[in-house]
Amino acid sequence: MKTWFHSWRAAIRIARRDAWRSKGRSALVLAMIALPILGVSALDLTYRSSELSAAERLERTIGAADARFRDAQVGGVPIFQDPTGEMHTTAKDYENEPWPSGSTDVTKTVPAGATVLTDGIGAAKLTTAHGLLGTEVRELKASDPIARGIMTLLEGRFPEKNDEVMATSHFLETSGLSIGSTLSARNFDRPYRIVGSYELPDSLDTDQVNALPGAFLAPYAKAVEKAGLPAPDVSVSYLVRKSGGFTWNTVKEINTKGVAVVSRAVVLDPPAASEVPLNQKEGWGGYEASPAAGAAELASLATVVGLAMLEICLLAGPAFAVGARRSRRQLGLVGANGGARSHIRAIVLSGGLVIGVAAAVTGTVLALVLTLVLQPVLEDTMGQRFGAFDIRPLELLGIALLAVLTGLLAAIVPAVTASRQTVLASLTGRRGVRRSSRVLPLIGLAALLVGGAIALFGSTVSEQVTLVAAGSALAELGVVAMTPALVGLFGRTGRWLPLSPRLALRDAVRNRGRTAPAVAAVLAAVAGTVAVTTYMAGREAQNRAEYEATLPYGVASAFVQEEGGRDAPAVREAVQRNFPVDVRADVGRISVGKPGCPPWGEGEGCGRYEVIVPPANECPLYATLPGGGDASEKYTPDQRRKLLTEDWRCKDSASSGMYVSDSGLLIGDAKLLQVLGVDDPATVKALADGRIVSFNRALVGKDGTVGIKQITDIPAADKASEQGRPAPGKVSSLPAYLVPGDKKTYGLQALMTPATAKAAGLSTAPLGLYVSTDRLPDSEQRQKLDSDLAKLGSDVEVHLEEGFVNEYGIILLSLAVFAGLVTIGAAGIATGLAQADAEADLKTLAAVGAPPRVRRTLSGFQCGVVAAMGVILGSAAGLLPAIGLRLTEEREQIRYYEQSLAEGWSRDLTPPDVPIVIPWETLAGLIVAVPLGAALLAALVTRSRGALARRAAT
User: Fold this and answer.
1) Which of 124, 417, 723, 829 would give a disulfide with 185, using CB separation of 3.0 to 4.6 Å?
2) How confident is the model at residue 953 (pLDDT cuts 50, 70, 90)?
3) Please, which residues have CB within 8 angstroms of residue 927's CB and are 6 or more apart in sequence?
4) What is the pLDDT of residue 548?
5) Residue 768 contacts by C-beta under 8 Å, 6 or more apart in sequence?
6) What are 757-788's pLDDT values in tens digits?
7) 88 burial class (0-12, 13-18, 19+ CB within 10 angstroms)?
8) Do residues 46 and 378 make contact, with C-beta atoms less than 8 angstroms apart?
């Protein structure tokens, strides 16, 4: 008894034989399906392998210890923490009290009998083969069994003496040093010999040096302080091993002493959320994604996967149709020998099944092999080692099933079409005439209208991007469904075309079964490209309009603020040496405290300064209130809007531009005015006369002076700020000159000469320089400057004003190339099918005397017609989502702008402008160049003479 199993087994055998005979076509379809499977499977393998388990994370953070103790820096007051030890806050709320700060003695919280290993981390500028390199220095006895897993020794050995260190492989590569080399630190001449190389499994690109506890950081801090610089910060934690580990109750008890704990036992077996006090504290509860957000993500993923499968089906479908067309005599013989239509469908569907299974196996196997072979490259790219090569069989099986499903879906339409052919038509090679469906275009029209309405609603009413995307996708599917009818409309233009293109267009219209899928595939690819390019063209136009230069064109600045500007002279010389400098202006800053203090006043013996704004010049919305509070709350929205638009104290001033220093005050001379383009003789004279030049009238008091306050007691100043009182400090009043007009000074608000600062009793420190250039420095000059600055080991802020730079150019070009390749591929498949159908017509033309070039010409026009129809329809369909997204952004930005004015958040009075720009260059390339290139390519690869065919039996 014959069953469906036997018929499908025979169908699969026939399909496998046909696939092997047509190796080229089978390989093409297999590649189209296997490549996405390869990419997704490799992504799954990489993600799962890099996703660390709790035990693997603990091994890399606390090694073989049972816990890591660290100071919460809240002065020892009780804290609440999460089970992982990553988040913590004080147990008490300090809303109306100063926030506790300060260190506590962590060692007192370590239980008796426990083994403790100190882990200290600091930073230093270490000498290298090229100069200096800012490097993390870690003091940890890495050879101790407790630290096993934190560092992986690659070569050499662990440090055993105080003058030995080991370094990460990334540091050795960057510094040009090797095992056996010696290094030291700036301001610290003690040499250390490198005895080993290691890596941090969680951070492969970290520059770090490891020394024994107490061997480097403490003597380095003393040497730095002796040089007049603040000692670097050092973070110390403790790896603790204790019999029985640390339970959650033990961790909570240690938390009462202001110490945070990462416990192995707690991380591996976390407590219930109700047992975590931190979750009960307002604003610190567990954050979980809402069901709606999860559903939205799932819907987005399903949409992307569905559209990708649709594109593959549209591309692969014509290839299966080619196979069915070439096998029509074989299929006719099956019908003549008693085969039913279901058997014909099974044979064609089996072709999709065979290719789908082959693509699934090929893609999955290649993903496994490539991920395993490229594992070191992937790890270096991600900056961390895999935990384990994690293979999830069910996930890979699900991805592979997508390939099988895609193959079956791509073969459905050819299978149904082949089964509807009569036996006589199949055996004689007649095509038959079948009217296209009238229902499908109506469904497509309805989807287009509904999708367009949803996108319009989302962009103009709801402001939800999800609705715009969903409506646009539905509308695009509607256009795809309407493709056969639209192809028929294109056919009416054939009466105005010459012979060859008219024949090509007529052939495409008469055989919509093979033309429509190819056109739809081109449409989908081009629509996505046009949508993205249109959206990005609008963003580019908006960014260009909103771009504000931070310096005059061609002007460069270089600032170095650490160590009191010690490297500023070297930075100036490096810029002068590598850039085509026209005018150079050296600048400095006011320094309060020791010479090596940073400008923000951190460190012992360091302070900061403020440029005082007279109370009469303060914007009422931002005025300081005694006791603290928001001054803008007492104004209505209309009053706030009026203040922002009419009161000069609340409008933007010369403060707009790049950050130069606190309050925008610099120490310099008239060359700086020349570089910034301030051409005012009166300003130059005032500067030379010893007055401070102000470009912001809010800084100048009624007596014509500018007040500068030197603050040396930072804690008292911070406390006064919390209470809304002026910070205590010495005030120096300097005679000022207010520059008339609204000069563009790029962030500079006030300027005085070094002599003026010295006369006022103000200490100064070098900051950097501004330079104007004869021409814009080229890439080679910039690279040389970067190399010279890297040798200094300092954090140098360099900016070169080169005007607006389009960041999307390469992306737009890549998208256009992608759409062009898909278009040529889909049109080529359709052309191959057309040639298979039109072989008899071509032979007839040759028999009546048509020249050989007709075959090439007709093939080229057939390919060009398919490409042109798909590109035109895709360009029209792609504009809808881009315009909808831009309209949504416009509504959002206008709403935020109005709210900002009403609440007094922003001083920007310019309404947002969200332009919609059509990328005509990209559209012209797609509509003209791509179809023309496809036609020429098809004509070139087509043979002028057809192959000799044997006579069919009569």
Assistant:
1) 124
2) very low
3) 868, 871, 872, 875
4) 82
5) 557, 558, 559, 560, 565, 568, 571, 572, 586, 587, 796, 797
6) 888 888 888 989 999 998 888 888 888 888 88
7) buried
8) yes
